[in-house]
Structures are given as structure tokens and as C-alpha cells.
């Protein structure tokens, strides 16, 4: 509601001042907004219940596979099938088909884009598992894209980059994040935090080169076709009922492939409990209902309103069009909950050096400027899309080599945060409406590209922030400061203490401390990590990966007589032995002070 309400207020203000949208469209817009809100809420709930668990199970299947060929095929299928169902991409595909007068089929666009996504997900998974540097990988990818951009026409450039932004939507982003998080957690290692980000950004590069290559291979440099004449549907309820059956069928077809893949693997391998399977089935049903409501709301009034406002503002005053575009970008990102979550992640990674407020302001200004520049491009024919996109991504790639590595992954992933449902629906229709009434503008060239601009803004702004953070971390010791000398430690004879080291499965550290306190221990230090002992060996020799379980290590220092009692109590505790798989080691406390 927080995301939608400011846009609704802005639309109503415009409708009662400058724009003459008509009573039917205003009522249908309000009804569509309510349906969109409810549908998106149900859809996201279904994602949490179904797609997130499916992503976790499939990530385990990918990571534990010993065959590189199986990893490649499975990763491709996951990327391809989940992207086919992405609502933002389905909307973009239908918009391209309408704008081209049917010469470009929406299904061809969706499936071609999904092929690119599947291939990039495969590459991204191998990069993660083989621990290759993300900035180098993305540098190579975008260098290839920049070279391809030289050979394609302006309309294919706009559509290709728009498809990139549309793939990172409400369905694909949480699913791919669950996949990458699961892979990085199982792989572990010192780059686990960096590896949890970046797969969404990797995936979003696939549609760009896929559509560009399609243009080059088929020698289709320009899109020929008459743009469909836009006519506002009359009535309130009837336009919604007319499109509902087709939208429902489209939603079923979109969700069926990835669901079928999961059920095949569940029968063959996972064999999850009935309770968990029931939860996933309920989640899939919620996802279907939510997706149907969302797409119906978008196509029955929400995008129509965006188009009408764009058309009338462009006719009234072109520079007002630019100002409203900036305002829309500003408020959409400022109230976007996902931006706040992203900001908290960055604040945590930066140790508080970059607060949430700065991140949100940076992103909102970046997206506002991106939409405003898109409107300038529509109003001024001399301004081209590549003036912004190519240098923007080139600078982002260069900054990624000077930015903190964790920020690089977050920055590329953040494009999906900004280019969400509002951008793929209202903002895209707004731009197309403006382009359709300005004589010097071309709907196929200038009406697209706004999603691409919005998706680029977070990448550029966050890599710049990451560079700033990296510079702040380099702190030099001031001249003339005397080194601090620790007080003299007691001799060994004065320290009749021992250190107990207990290693348990994750989640049992508090239980160890409680048992130790029952025998007289007073405190402990807990460390988290990964590793194996004599009871466990988990390796993947072919992929050169060790998938080791998470552990907790508890250090307890006490006098020698007490340490014997505590160690005995820990070893004899049945719950710690059975569930925590405890291992206990005892050593003289002064071993930590040895030279």
C-alpha cells in the first residue's frame, strides 16, 4: 500500500487539475489499483510459501551434483522456466507486440529473453561454485554487450535493455536470491557473503545479448509495423471481465513449467513431507490467484491511466512531462519496501558507515533522474538512449574494480529493486503515451528504454557508494601516536586454568553454555563457522567444492579442577551427544598465549 498510495494520489491530483481522463477510467483505475494491491499481496505470499522453498530445494540439487553437465542443464532450466512466468516480462512482451502492430510476437520475446536468462544463470552458478571474481565476470559480460550494441538499431537497443530490467521482477528476484543464498551457504568459504549477491544481476544481462543476437542473426535491424491505435475502453466492470479468462490461462501456462520440474524432482529425489508439500501447493495456488489479479488489474485500467496521463502531459507541456517523470521516480523508490531492506543490508555490510537514509536518497534521486532523462529523450529527438546506457554501464563496470566486492553484487542485484511492478506498468505506459503524441518521437524507439534507465540507476549509484565505502575503510594511523602496551601477563605457574573447546551443530551453543553453567562455569565465547570432524565428510571433488555443515564453537576458560567437571558434564549430556553431535577438547589456557 505504501508503494501504490503516493502514485494514486499523484494521478488523482493530475486528473482533477490538468488531465481529462474521464469518469470511467478514473473509477477503473481506482478499482484496478485495489485489485493490483490485493493481487500483488497474494502473489508475494504465494512466492514465500512456494517459490522460496522450491528455490532452496533446487539449489541443494544443483550444489550437490557431481556432474558439471547436470549443473549446467538444471541451472538453465531453473532460470528459463522461472523467467517465463515473470509478470513484468509478460507485460513488457504484450506492450512490444502492441507497439509493433503484431510484427513481434510477445511469446517469442518472452521465450528468447528466458533463454538468455537461463544461460546466464548457468554461468552465474558456475562462477559462484568455482569462486571466480564477480566484477571480472560482469566486466567481460558487459564488454560483450557494448560491442553488440554497435551492430543493432535503436529500437532493439531499447527493447533489449528494457527486457533486462523486466526480468528482475516480483517472481524471479526472490526465487533467484533463494537459489544464490542456498548455494553460497552450502559452499561456505571466506567469500560466502559476497557470493550471496550477484546472481540476479548476472541473470539480468542475459536478455540484453539474447535479443541483440536475435536481431543480428536474423538481420532484422528495424521493427516494421503499424502501431495499434490506442482507444480507452468504455465501462467499468466489463473491460475487466473481458480479459479475465485469457489472463487466467496465460498465468496457468506461465507457472506450469517450473511447478512441473519441481514435482518431478520431488518424486525422484526430494520426497519432502506431506505437510511441506501441502504448504507448497497452497503457495502455488496463491501465486496463481495473485498473478491473475495482478495482470488483470494492470491491463484493465492501470496502464491505460498511465498512457492517458503521458499523452495529455506531452500535449500540454513537455517540460512538465519531465518534471512529473522525475517526481514519479522519486516517490516510487522512496516508499518501496524492498529499497529499505536493501538499505539495511548495505548498512550492515558497511558496518554502519553508509546509513539507510543515504542509500534510499541516492537510489530515489538516481531513479527520478533516470525517468526524467527518459522523458527528455522523448521530447528532444537529438537525445539518444545510448548516450546514457552505454556510458552508464561502462562506468559501473570500471567502478566495480575499485568498489568493495560485496557492494558489486548488491549493486547489480539492486536493478531489480527499482525496476519493479510500478516501472513495468505505470511508468512504461506513461512513456509510451508521451511518445505516441510527440511528432518527432517514435513509440518503438522512444517509448521503450525507460525500464532500462531505471535498472541502470542503482547499479551506477551503488558501485559509486561502494567505492566511497572502500576509501573510508582505509584508515592510516596518525603520526606520533604511541603504541598501546598490554599489561604483563601472569606466569604459567600463576594460571592454573584450562580452556574447554566444544564444537556443536548450529543452534546448540546456548544449550552448551547452560549445561556448563550448571557445573559452575561463568561465561563463554561463541564462534560460528563451517567444518567437519571424524564423523562427517562432505566433499565434491569434481567441482573442487567442500560443502561442509555449519558449526558453533564454544570457548570456556576456567580453573583446572572445575574444567574437569564441566567437560565431563558436557560429554555425558545425552541431548548434546545425540542432537548437537558435540565434540569436547581441553587444553591449558596458556596455549593461546604461546609464541
Task: Tell me the layout of helices and strands.
Elements: H1 4-15, H2 23-63, H3 68-84, H4 87-99, H5 106-130, H6 134-149, H7 154-167, H8 172-187, H9 192-195, H10 199-217, H11 238-270, H12 274-316, H13 318-334, H14 337-349, H15 356-379, H16 386-400, H17 405-418, H18 421-437, H19 443-446, H20 450-473, E1 497-505, H21 509-518, E2 525-530, E3 550-559, H22 560-572, H23 574-578, E4 583-588
Antiparallel strand pairs: 1-3, 1-4, 2-3
Helix pairs in contact: 1-2, 2-8, 2-12, 3-5, 3-11, 4-5, 4-7, 5-10, 6-10, 6-16, 7-10, 7-20, 10-17, 11-12, 12-13, 12-18, 13-15, 14-15, 14-17, 15-18, 15-20, 16-20, 17-20, 21-22
Descriptive overview:
Mean pLDDT is 79; it is low at 474-478, 486-490 and 537-547. The longest helix has 43 residues, at 274-316. Helices cover 69% and strands 5% of the residues. It has helices at residues 4-15, 23-63, 68-84, 87-99, 106-130, 134-149, 154-167, 172-187, 192-195, 199-217, 238-270, 274-316, 318-334, 337-349, 356-379, 386-400, 405-418, 421-437, 443-446, 450-473, 509-518, 560-572, 574-578; strands at residues 497-505, 525-530, 550-559, 583-588. A four-stranded antiparallel beta sheet has the order 2-3-1-4, with helices on one face. The protein is mainly alpha-helical and 595 residues long.
Strand order of the largest sheet: 2-3-1-4
State the secondary-structure class: mainly alpha
Amino- and carboxy-terminal Cα gap: 61 Å
Overall tally of domains? 2
- Rg value: 28 Å
Question: If you average the pLDDT, what whole number results?
Answer: 79
Amino acid at each position: 500500500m505504501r508503494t501504490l498510495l503516493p502514485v494514486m494520489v499523484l494521478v488523482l491530483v493530475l486528473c482533477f487539475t490538468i488531465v481529462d481522463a474521464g469518469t470511467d477510467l478514473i473509477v477503473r483505475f481506482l478499482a484496478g489499483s485495489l485489485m493490483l494491491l490485493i493481487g500483488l499481496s497474494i502473489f508475494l505470499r504465494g512466492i514465500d510459501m512456494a517459490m522460496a522453498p522450491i528455490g532452496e530445494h533446487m539449489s541443494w540439487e544443483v550444489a550437490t551434483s557431481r556432474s558439471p553437465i547436470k549443473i549446467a542443464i538444471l541451472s538453465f532450466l531453473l532460470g528459463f522456466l522461472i523467467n517465463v512466468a515473470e509478470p513484468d516480462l509478460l507485460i513488457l512482451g504484450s506492450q512490444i507486440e502492441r507497439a509493433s502492430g503484431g510484427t513481434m510476437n510477445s511469446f517469442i520475446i518472452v521465450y528468447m529473453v528466458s533463454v538468455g536468462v537461463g544461460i546466464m544463470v548457468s554461468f552465474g552458478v558456475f562462477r559462484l561454485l568455482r569462486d571466480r571474481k564477480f566484477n571480472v565476470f560482469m566486466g567481460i559480460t558487459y564488454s560483450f554487450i557494448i560491442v553488440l550494441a554497435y551492430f543493432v538499431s535503436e529500437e532493439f537497443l531499447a527493447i533489449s535493455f528494457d527486457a533486462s530490467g523486466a526480468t528482475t521482477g516480483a517472481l524471479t528476484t526472490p526465487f533467484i536470491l533463494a537459489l544464490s543464498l542456498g548455494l553460497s551457504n552450502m559452499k561456505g568459504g571466506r567469500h560466502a557473503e559476497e557470493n550471496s549477491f550477484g546472481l540476479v544481476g548476472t541473470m539480468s544481462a542475459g536478455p540484453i545479448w539474447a535479443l541483440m543476437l536475435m536481431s543480428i542473426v536474423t538481420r532484422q535491424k528495424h521493427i516494421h509495423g503499424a502501431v495499434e491505435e490506442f482507444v480507452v475502453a468504455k465501462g467499468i466492470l466489463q473491460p475487466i471481465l473481458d480479459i479475465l479468462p485469457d489472463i487466467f490461462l496465460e498465468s496457468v501456462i506461465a507457472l506450469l513449467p517450473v511447478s512441473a520440474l519441481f514435482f518431478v524432482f520431488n518424486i525422484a529425489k526430494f520426497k519432502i513431507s506431506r505437510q511441506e508439500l501441502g504448504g507448497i501447493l497452497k503457495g502455488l495456488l496463491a501465486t496463481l490467484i495473485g498473478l491473475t489479479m495482478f495482470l488483470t488489474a494492470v491491463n484493465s485500467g492501470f496502464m491505460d491511466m498511465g498512457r492517458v496521463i503521458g499523452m495529455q502531459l506531452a500535449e500540454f507541456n513537455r517540460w512538465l512531462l519531465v518534471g512529473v517523470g522525475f517526481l514519479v521516480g522519486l516517490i516510487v523508490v522512496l516508499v518501496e519496501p524492498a529499497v529499505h531492506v536493501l538499505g539495511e543490508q548495505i548498512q550492515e555490510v558497511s558496518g554502519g558507515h553508509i546509513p539507510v537514509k543515504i542509500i534510499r536518497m541516492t537510489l530515489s534521486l538516481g531513479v527520478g533522474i533516470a525517468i526524467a532523462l527518459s522523458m527528455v529523450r522523448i521530447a528532444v529527438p537529438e537525445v539518444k538512449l545510448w548516450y546514457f546506457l552505454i556510458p552508464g554501464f561502462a562506468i559501473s563496470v570500471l567502478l566495480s574494480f575499485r568498489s568493495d566486492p560485496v557492494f558489486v553484487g548488491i549493486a547489480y542485484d539492486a536493478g531489480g529493486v527499482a525496476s519493479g511492478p510500478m516501472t513495468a506498468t505505470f511508468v512504461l505506459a506513461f512513456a509510451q503515451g508521451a511518445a505516441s503524441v510527440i511528432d518527432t518521437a517514435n513509440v518503438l524507439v522512444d517509448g521503450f528504454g525507460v525500464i532500462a534507465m531505471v535498472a541502470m540507476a542503482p547499479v551506477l549509484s551503488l558501485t559509486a557508494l561502494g567505492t566511497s565505502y572502500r576509501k573510508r575503510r582505509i584508515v592510516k594511523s596518525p603520526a606520533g601516536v604511541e603504541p598501546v602496551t598490554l599489561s604483563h601477563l601472569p606466569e604459567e605457574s600463576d594460571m592454573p586454568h584450562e580452556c574447554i573447546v566444544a564444537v556443536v551443530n548450529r543452534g546448540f551453543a546456548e544449550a552448551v553454555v547452560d549445561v556448563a553453567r550448571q557445573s559452575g562455569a561463568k561465561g563463554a565465547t561463541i564462534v560460528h563457522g563451517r567444518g567437519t570432524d571424524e564423523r562427517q565428510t562432505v566433499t565434491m571433488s569434481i567441482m573442487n567444492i567442500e560443502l561442509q555443515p555449519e558449526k558453533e564453537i564454544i570457548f570456556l576458560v576456567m580453573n583446572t579442577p572445575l574444567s574437569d567437571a564441566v567437560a565431563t558434564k558436557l560429554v555425558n549430556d545425552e541431548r548434546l551427544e545425540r542432537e548437537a553431535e558435540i565434540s569436547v577438547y581441553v587444553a591449558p589456557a596458556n596455549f593461546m598465549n604461546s609464541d
